[in-house]
Structures are given as structure tokens and as C-alpha cells.
Task: structure prediction
Amino acid sequence: MSDFYQDGVITNFHNLTKRKLEELEYDLQVFSGRRSMGLILPSLFSELEGPALSKIVDELTKVPYLEEIVIGLDRADRDQFLFAREFFSRLPQRHRILWNDGPRLKALDEELKKENLSPMEPGKGRNVWFCVGYTLASRRTTVVGLHDCDIVTYTREMLARLMYPVANPNFHYDFCKGYYARVADGKFNGRVGRLLVFPLLKSLQIVYGKSEFLEYLRSFRYPLSGEFAMRTHVLNDLRIPSDWGLEIGVLSELHRNTATKRICQVDIADNYDHKHQPMSEEDASNGLQRMSIDITKALYRKMAILGVPITAESFRVLKATYYRNALDMIDGFEHDAKMNGLKFDRHSEESAVELFSGAIMEAGLAFVDTPSEKPFIPSWSRVQSAFPDMLERLHDAVEEDNKGNV
Result:
């Protein structure tokens, strides 16, 4: 709470009084009369078989203010899609599943590919992008939230606190980012945020100079959180990466399109835990190594867009600067852990920093070697200019799948 009385780049809402969930949900029901609310859930089929998603659905059945839930389903065959329809059928809210691997959505994707308007690779970004398209086509909501499907500590209070700032018609916010402490099982989690993003943002300022954009990113308590909510009108022009750079990419787009006074963050949980990615030291295409490369590339792209000369030579300086800053931060985390009675494995922390140092170079080389790479999926506004009826056709395809015609 040290920044409570300080001016920040964005507004920060703390969970000071632990306001009762019933009061939050009552207010949101009132707000829904003026600002209808929806939720996007990007999911892999494997998450339907995991420990988290069934509990999330149980919690969502009790949420009184949601008009619509849009579920993006990846890596599912026909039988798995039918299983998913049954799995989500207990939701009392209107809900639709996007069968991203089904023949109808794949046919639309092929049309988009011919005009270079389709996501370049599978992943969370692609899943979210199609869900955004359906949300726009449905036209049922003016506020939409999004969160991951692997949160094992999920409660519906998380959603209520996330939606409140953008749902309240007396507030002026267009976008709200959730944050929380990453502590579980008696130790710190959130290695990519703690050991890559925070020291890297500081190092970028040292190497390339201070910038409003970097200060903006550093003002987020947890820029990699997968929980955010926004006014639906923001979605039409939103361009997002299709890879693991989704969260950083969304914040970058908000910085480009939205005044910072209309952006906020909110403390949504005392306790948060989800599925942990492996380090994947031997395979740069998986795990935290892949994630760290994609996130770092997303930062390089934005810096280049802002006119910063990103060169191969500067990556070596950046890597060295990052390494020193990251080790210094580990000292602080170790002290914090001891004060709070948490376990702390310095060897694994420094091993992660070494892996992330390599990712900074890998991302830099990939950035320099592929200057023509499209950093973002095209916005739905652009898609509609090329295919004026695409949103309606996407809507109809999803409706047909959910009626049972598969």
C-alpha cells in the first residue's frame, strides 16, 4: 500500500476493506441495467480435464450479472467438442463455445488466410481474437471480462472486483487489469514477471533511455496477469499478438489507443495459483523459455514502433544490464521471503535468470532476422473492411455448432 497516496501513471485500486461479495454483486446487477456484461474464457480442451476449470464453472453458475459467456475451445476434436458442450451446459447464463478446430471456423480461417488476415499461429492470442470477434458479432455486451481457465484458487469475487471499475457507469475507465500476489505453497511464484519483466523494463530504460511507455508498463503491479476487463468498444480496433506476448501486446495497444486516465488496475485476490509452466531449458519452443522469448519480442516491437533504434549490438549491452538488475532483485525477493516465512531457492532463481538472459538474446536475434514479421493479428475493424459480413458469418457458424449440427 506504499503507493496509495502517490500519483501513478494509471489508477490503482486496492482491496482495503475486503468489501462483502454480496455487496459487489448487488452493485454489478444494478450496473448491468446500463452496462451489460460478458466474459471470455480461452481454454484448451485439456483444461476441461484438469482440477481448475470445473470449479471455475461452478463459481460462474452463481454469478448473477453476466449476460453472456463466450468460451474459446482449442485442440478439440468432434467428440471433445460434444463433451465440452455438456461440460458447460450447467451455466445458467447464455453461453457459446467457439470450436476453433471445427470445420465451420476452420473454413472461415482459410478465407482470412488468403487475405493475410488470419492469426499466423495457434495459441492463446488466436483463441482470444476469435472470441473477441464473436463478442462483437453478438452485440449483447458493453463490458467484457477475460480470465484464464487454469486458476485453481478461483472465486467469483475475483471477477466481481475485475469488472467493477469498467461496469460502474459513474466511473470513466475503459480498461481494468487485475493483479495479485503470486504466493502459493509457501513460496514465491510468478517467475517470468518477477525475474524477467520487471528487471527487463528497468534495463530497457537504462540502455535505450526513459520513455513514457516503459513508465506506463512499470506502473502495473502484474503486467502478465491474464485477467482484464474492458468496454466493448475498445475491442474493434484492438490488435493483439497470437503468441505468448498477448498480455504485453494488449497493454501496448491500450497505451496507443486509450488515455492513461481511462486505464486502471485492481487487486482481485489475496491468494492466486494456477498451472505452472516448465522451464523447458532444452526446448525454446515450449514452457517458460518460449514465453520469455515471445514477451521480450513484444517489447522490442513496441520500442521499435516508438522510434527506438533496436540493434543487434545493443542486445549484448541489454543482456548484461538485465543480468545485473535481475540478480539485485533476487536479493530483495530473498529478504522478502525470509521476513514472511517463505521458502526461497536461490539456485533456481538464478538459474531462471540465466535462462531469461539467453531469451533476451534469442528474442533479439529473431527480431532482427525477421523484420517483416507481422507483430499483431489484424484488428476486427480491418477484417470488416475486407469482409463486411465476416462477423455475421462467424456468429452464424458458432450458433450452428452450438445447436448440435456438427
